[in-house]
Structures are given as C-alpha cells and as structure tokens.
Amino acid sequence: MLHKGNVAMSKNSEVAKIFREIAFILQTVEEKKSEPNTIFKIRSYNRAADEIQNLSFDIDDIYKKEKLKGLLKIPSIGKAIATKLEEYITTGKIHYYDELKEKLPIDVSQFFGLEGIGPKTIKMLYFNLGIKNISDLEKAALEGKIRSIPGFSQKKEELILKKIQFFRKGGGRRLIGEVYPLVRRIEERLSGNIGVKQAVAVGSFRRMKETIGDIDFLVSVMSEKDGDNIIDYFVNMPEVKEVSGRGLSKAFVKLNNGIDADLLVVPQESFGAAMQYFTGSKEHGVAMRKIAISKGLRLNEWGVFDKQNHRVAGATEEEVYRVLGLDWIPPEMRENRGEIKLAKKGKNVIEKEEEEKVRLSQLIAYDDLKGDLQVHSNNTDGTMSIEEMALNARDKFGLSYIAISDHTKSLRLTNGLDEKQLLNQANTIAELNDKINVNNSNKHFRILSSAEVNILKDGSLDISNNVLDKLDIVGAAIHSHFSLPIESQTARLISAAQNPSIDIIFHPTGRIINRREGYPVNISKLIEVAKESNTILEIDAHYDRLDLKDEYIRMAVENNVKLVIDSDAHHPLHYAFLIFGIGQARRGWAMKSDILNTLSAKELLNSLK
Ligand code: DGT
Ligand code: CA
Ligand code: CA
Ligand code: ZN
Fold it and tell me: Ligand 2 being an ion, which residues bring their Cβ within 5 A of it?
C-alpha cells in the first residue's frame, strides 16, 4: 500500500524558493565563496530548500504548534535557518535575503530553469551587460553581445540560446509531483461538500502525465442549487488567487501557485460521460466519438444518445465504453495510441491480440509494489540512516524490502563509498536485518545490500566486480560527461549492461524534466542489449526524472525487457514518489508481470542474471 504523496505546499514552496535563491546568490557574489564556511552555508540552504519543499506539513502549522522548537525538528534545519524561517512566517520577509538581493538585483529564480548556466556565468552577464532576466539574456544573445564578454565565445552564446529554447518549450507546465498533493486535497474537500455526489480531478492529472497544463475538477450534484453552492465554494477556496470566470455550471480560477484550475459541474446522470470527456486526451475523445457515429450514436459530455435523442449511457464511464462496444480503458492509456483497438470486445480473432488484451486488466496497479530498489542513506547524500529508511518503508509505506543503493567513490560530491565502505555497509545491513526482524515475525522485512555504481567515461565502473558480486543487487548509472555524443553514451550504457555484476541501469537517460534534456541515448539499442543480457531498466519515479519516460517504457515492454520502479529516496517521505513511477508505467502499458519489484525479495533475487 502506498500513501498519497504529500509532497509540496504553497507556503513551503515559497520559502524553498527563497532559500534556493539565497544559496545561488551566495555562490554568485559572496567574496569568500570557496571557503569551507560558505560552501557549508550554500549546501545548508539548498538542503533546507529540498527538505521544506518535500515536507508533509505546512511550516505555518508547525510553527503555530511548537514555534522555533518545531522548526528545528525538520531534518537539515539548524538554528540559523530555523530563525530565518521564523522571520518569514511571522513577518513575510527575510532581511538577510533582501540584503543579498541588493548585491545582485536580478530575477534569480528565472535562471534556475537554465541548466548548465551557473552562478559564475550569471554574475558575468549581470556585471558586464546588466542582464537581469531571461528576456534580457535572450535579447543580448540574439544581438551577439554575449560573445564579447571576456572568457565567453560564440559557442557559449549559441548554447545559451539553445537552453532558453528548451526552457520555453516547458512553457509553464508543472511537474505532476508539484501539484499532486494540492489536487488530492482539493478533490477530497470538494467530495465532502453537502450536495456533491462525486468529485474527481480529470484531464492530464487523471492520465498521470508527467507535466500538467491546468487542473480540471469535475463534480456531480443533485440539484441546480447544489451546483451553485459548490461553485461558490470553489471560487472562495483559500488556494484561489483570482477568479477568471464563472458560469452556471463552471468556474475558472488561478491558484496561488500560479496554476489555473477549472471546475465543471454536471448532473449525476452525466457524470460518467463528463468524466470520459474531460479526462481526455482530446485525441482519445475524438476517436471515441467516431466510434459512436459509426454505431449510429452520438457521444458528448452529457452522455451517449441514440437517433431519437434518448440517453443510452452516461452515469458511469464503464457504461459509456460498454455501449460503444469497448472494455473500460485505464485513464493513463487514453492517448489514442492503440488502446481503443485493444479494448474492442470480441473482435480479436488473432491469438496474439487476445494476449495483448490482458494488458487492460493486468496493468500494474498503484498498490502492486513490494519493494524499492533505489534508496539512499546518510552514508552518502541521503538524509536518514539505513535503519530509519527501512522502518519507514515498512511501517509507513507497507513495503517488504528496500535496497540501499548509495553512490560510489568517483561521485565525490555525494561522498560516494569505496570498496571497503561498501563491504562494511553490507555487513551492517546483515546485522540490521536480524535486528529489525527480531520482534516482528509476522511481517518480515528485508534490506538488500546494493550500490548505485558510477559509470565512468569509458563505460567501466568505479568499483571492482569482485566487490559488487558480494552485494545482493547492483545498479549502475551515468552522472557525468553528459556532452559526449550519442554513440559514446550508448556504448557506456551498453558496457555497463553487459557487465555480469550489473543488474539494473538506473535512470537510463539522465533527463530532468523541464530542466535538462539528459545525455543522448540510442534507446532501441539499449533495450536490445538489456534484453540479451537480462539487465533490468529502471523507471526512476522521482517526479522530476520519470526516467524511463512513458514512451520508452512502452518500447521496453514490447521487447520483453524487465523493469523496476524505484523512488530514488533520499528521505523517507520520498517513497511517496513511487506512485508517479507507477503512473508512467501504466502510461507505458506495463503489466504487473513486467515490473520485477512486484515480486517478493526472494523471487526478485532469483530472477537476476
Ligand atoms: P493539460 O491541461 O494541457 O495538461 O492537458 P489536458 O488533457 O488536461 O487538457 P485540457 O485541460 O485542455 O482539457 C481537459 C480535457 O477536456 C481534455 O483532455 C479533453 C477535453 N477537451 C478539452 N478541449 C477539447 C476539445 O476541443 N475537443 C475534445 N474532444 N476534447 C476536449
Ligand atoms: Ca488540464
Ligand atoms: Ca482545462
Ligand atoms: Zn543517480
């Protein structure tokens, strides 16, 4: 069982943003920036930002209850930062931040989106050309002014333009993990309103797309009066910043976090049809309407109607699909990529298609995962001990095993482990397994020894095979040399996959959604090698990675490559991210049997190469 992700909240996000800006400005203008003290400060602000962003409580509430003492209980928050938090909660300002802003009066957060354009560059851009935001930057680059800054070049100028383009393509879409808790919260509150029969978030959110343009809520009511009441309630929610429009059965608002949200209100008898319509995708809807027409029916958001204009279906989605001769289709599959053909009832004479049809009913479910195979501890860049990570996985998320996959030595930034430390850690894990299971005979939990081995430039690993072979399961990943050409990157991944000690390739393409494209990979080739070598490909469920992405998952599934879904947890709350990975797996048509961490730990270990 997985809990609903409690990931980010608005006040928390505001403070997190300010802390990231502080860290950034310190890196930019602080004279003593290479002194250990400053480095420590920069890291502390970044860590605090991550922590607060991912907190399951509102910092306001924490402060209300326990004041400064409560704030100090947040992991990674020391006295200095807690005091700044208090200042922000009580006055809405942080004096230290305002002071720093005076030294560098630019729109720092805009530049966060431009991966690879760091503090040093931004400082030069500001002091040489007065560039304060992305539009300034784009203008200067187009006018050829950037190359004239000492140390810059035409190549750098072109790179900057490319980064800006990539950033704009993201176009204000939010990562699903950024809006998930908020959407679930609103959905729950709408459901609890008097007069409301059902309330659900539809649109791209229900399809679990990796990014969300706007949020669509659908509500069914008993009477017109109830409809009016729920619209009143919606436009007056504390999350609403401004109301952009309101009609008899709909409302459009902008939320405090800048995202738009729509509300549609329908009568009970149309709820299923409206759900079908507003879940989309548009392409899936268009194809559905064609089928209706071919059957002499008409499908719209109010129902399915016959020639005499009688409603033949509409209250539930199932009946809408049924009268069109289709099985119900999971929302994540509704992209008009072949799912409608798959759902046609009784038409599949060919055996192969009959086999494929089980995908609809045997898609991996949100409560199918038994373990998590990418988990980090505070022995490297995680925030909690192995034991704490294990107990949280067991008690809060109902998992029955985790693999501790700490980074390895060549990743110095994370204090990666060397051979000796890895073997020591494996011994500690063996002892911990005894300890945590001692009084818990009914619910056996297993910690697996593992590592996230760093793939070096030439495709070799930074830990020797004889050490890796002593671990239960091993993942490998690329964390550097992102600018090598596609042939070299693919070759690096292939040599890791062909290494007999490597079981899994972690986050295979290295992308960070809306921030960096990742390194180029010939994915078909990698899939082919994964199949031949019995190597597992990972779906990293952290919502800013989702790597593999849906379309690559589908390719892997079609080629019978085995997959795992991991949270990449650096803190126990991050186990909540697993649902985003499951969502992508469903979008990639993966069945439970395609995902190896639906197996017990024993079965999983038996299936490795
Ligand atoms: P988003 O908001 O960009 O992440 O993507 P969606 O899929 O949530 O799209 P949105 O919010 O524009 O509309 C919600 C759903 O309503 C969409 O998935 C299908 C349906 N819809 C909206 N406009 C149209 C349309 O013009 N034709 C059809 N067939 N359906 C539409
Ligand atoms: Ca939408
Ligand atoms: Ca919409
Ligand atoms: Zn990694």
Answer: 203-204, 214, 216
